[in-house]
Write a structure and sequence with these properties.
With about 600 residues, the chain is of the alpha+beta class. Helices cover about 50% and strands about 20% of the residues. It has four domains: about 130 residues, SH3 Domains (SH3 type barrels), CATH 2.30.30.40; about 70 residues, SH3 Domains (SH3 type barrels, Roll); about 150 residues; about 110 residues, endopeptidase domain like (from Nostoc punctiforme) (endopeptidase fold (from Nostoc punctiforme), Alpha-Beta Complex), CATH 3.90.1720. Strand 23 and strand 24 form a beta hairpin. The radius of gyration is 48 Å and the shape is rod-shaped.
């Protein structure tokens, strides 16, 4: 978009005395001092050596419009040899003629620059008046402090409000209706605003001082340096497979490109500036490519990490299953051994109990025999039998206790074996469930990783998808910004020769495999709806016109949009708040 400095088409008020002759000019050898008040010492010497003819302030007689291939230098003296360059006057710039030397130099004022330019580079008078209709633009600027100005369907405060514009917004004037002006808001809305809330002027491209040109060039060079720095950062991130860092670098490089585009658009005939901007466009595009590679590398590393984690989980699972099986087997064997020991001990106890019973019966029989035929020998035998019976009883009791202990141990071993068996079964059941989940997750993210861990696979898939989306968005924005400054053509879809708003986004998105309907209204019905506070670079924003949705822009980040606005501004970058969007759609 061209940078324009507001200049009202009114005749300048010349200071000092002036005598108008039949030719409309008068020679003033010494009267130039007043006309040059404020010029400073830079042109004093020239005043003393050049005869200057002042031009009478009669309409376009004091207006000159430059006609050059690129620009012509403005000098502090009327000489290419002794005059120092104080500014640049670009093609179609408007200048105010303050005077004329006798050898064909104009003393002019354009913008903030006052100095000398050869009259060979200007058209004046009626020619300038006719050319002004082509190169000048009538504009209405919303007055500062007017937060929201209604654009109405007719020049009446009671008519329908068909759009809204904000503080300091510039609108192209289509016609003057007294207290109202008809203005164009993008390509879809034409309406009326009250002059009470706007300042109306005719804008022209104007000269700029050497300092201004150098400052703009320095700003563009700084943008190039920033983009180059981000390019290096993106390559470093690519080597480190850091997709997030690379995406940030691409975003910053594209922001630098957008800034440079706006600065370069201020002077379209400053070809050196255009070359710098082209360099930034290349660097930004290269940075976006590096971002794509970095994010693909990150996604690949995350996929490999997920597979390795899944493999480790599978190995751990197999080891756990094997250990559970071994523990269950050992427990079962221990239970079997314990049961066998308990059974053997039970038999021993029963045998000893039988022996104790037999010994007790023998002792009773011996005592009965001694009682019937008592002798010391018989009594001794009876006592010995009783002692043997008691020993047998004690042995039987000990065997019984041992048998009961063995039985208890066998029961515990059996319970432990059962618990191990249940644990093994639970392990197998859980592993089966995890395997099912892993398979499902893997199917949705990678066909060759069906045994990957469910959580890891899901995280990896989500991260990879996010990285891929971000890289595509940056590429879309970088591509769209390449065409800033190209013309607006109603019904057009050419990014170079001209497109309207919907044709512009249609062609940009088509380059990335996204097919859109032809009109903004139809485009607003496809894609994924997103809230206006959640938009991302590459999303499309839509605006209401008098007959519904009639305009579309693309969000590029940093609170800016790129769009094919209207025939005056062409494809341009604007603040997101230049108009109030009604909805947004995402396609990535």
């Amino acid at each position: 978009m061209k940078r324009s400095v507001l200049m009202k088409l009114t005749a300048c008020c010349m200071t000092g005395a002036m005598v108008l002759g039949s030719t409309g000019v008068v020679t003033m050898a010494s009267g130039l001092d007043s006309a040059l008040a404020g010029m400073g010492a830079e042109i004093t010497e020239s005043q003393q050596t050049k005869e200057v003819v002042k031009v009478a302030p009669s309409g376009y007689d004091t207006v000159a419009i430059a006609q050059v291939d690129e620009y012509v230098n403005i000098r502090d003296a009327a000489s290419t040899e002794s005059g120092n360059v104080v500014g640049k006057l670009y093609n179609n710039c408007k200048a105010e003629i303050l005077g004329k030397t006798d050898d064909g130099w104009y003393l002019i004022k354009s913008g903030d620059v006052t100095g000398y330019v050869s009259s060979d580079y200007f058209v004046t008078g009626s020619q300038a008046e006719e050319l002004a209709k082509e190169v000048g633009t009538d504009m209405a600027t919303v007055k500062e402090g007017t937060q929201t100005l209604m654009v109405r369907s007719s020049a009446d405060s009671n008519s329908e409000a068909i759009s809204m514009v904000g503080d300091s917004e510039k609108l192209r004037v289509l016609e003057d209706n007294g207290d109202w002006v008809k203005v164009a808001v993008d390509d879809d809305v034409e309406g009326y605003v009250s002059k009470e809330y706007v300042d109306c002027d005719t804008e022209f491209v104007e000269a700029e001082s050497v300092e201004q040109a150098e400052a703009r060039k320095a700003a563009v060079q700084a943008a190039l340096d920033k983009a180059t720095q981000m390019q290096e950062a993106a390559y470093a991130a690519m080597n480190a497979a850091d997709g997030n860092e690379a995406a940030y670098a691409a975003d910053q490089a594209n922001a630098a490109l957008a800034e440079a585009k706006m600065l370069a658009g201020e002077q379209e005939y400053d070809y050196e500036l255009q070359d710098l901007t082209d360099q930034i466009a290349y660097v930004a595009q290269d940075t976006s490519v590096a971002s794509v590679w970095a994010q693909e590398a990150q996604a690949e590393e995350e996929r490999i990490a997920a597979e390795e984690a899944a493999r480790a989980a599978a190995e751990a699972q197999a080891a756990a299953e094997a250990q559970a099986a071994a523990d269950a087997q050992a427990a079962a064997e221990a239970a079997a051994a314990s049961q066998a020991s308990a059974a053997s001990q039970e038999q021993d106890a029963q045998q000893k109990e039988q022996e104790a019973a037999d010994a007790w019966q023998a002792a009773v029989d011996a005592q009965n025999q001694a009682d019937q035929n008592w002798t010391e020998e018989a009594q001794a035998e009876a006592d010995a039998a009783a002692a043997a019976a008691m020993e047998a009883a004690a042995a039987a009791e000990a065997a019984r206790q041992q048998a009961e202990a063995e039985a208890a141990a066998a029961a515990e071993a059996e319970a432990a074996a059962k618990a191990e068996q249940e644990a093994q079964q639970n392990q197998q059941d859980n592993n089966y469930d995890d395997g099912s989940n892993n398979s499902s997750s893997s199917d949705s993210s990678s066909s060759d990783s069906s045994s990957s861990d469910s959580s890891s696979s899901s995280d990896s898939s989500s991260s990879g998808s996010s990285s891929s989306s971000s890289s595509i968005r940056q590429s879309v924005v970088s591509y769209a910004l390449q065409f800033v400054g190209n013309p607006y053509v109603y019904g057009g879809t050419s990014l170079t020769n001209g497109a309207d708003c919907s044709g512009f986004v249609l062609s940009v998105m088509a380059n990335f495999g996204v097919s859109l309907p032809r009109t903004a209204a139809s485009q607003s019905t496809v894609g994924t709806p997103v809230s206006l506070d959640s938009i991302q670079p590459g999303d499309l924003l839509f605006y209401q016109g008098s007959g519904g949705i009639g305009h579309v822009t693309m969000y590029i980040g940093n609170g800016q949009v790129v769009h094919a606005s209207n025939p005056s501004t062409g494809i341009t970058v604007s603040s997101i708040n230049y108009r109030t969007p009604c909805c947004a759609r995402s396609f990535f």
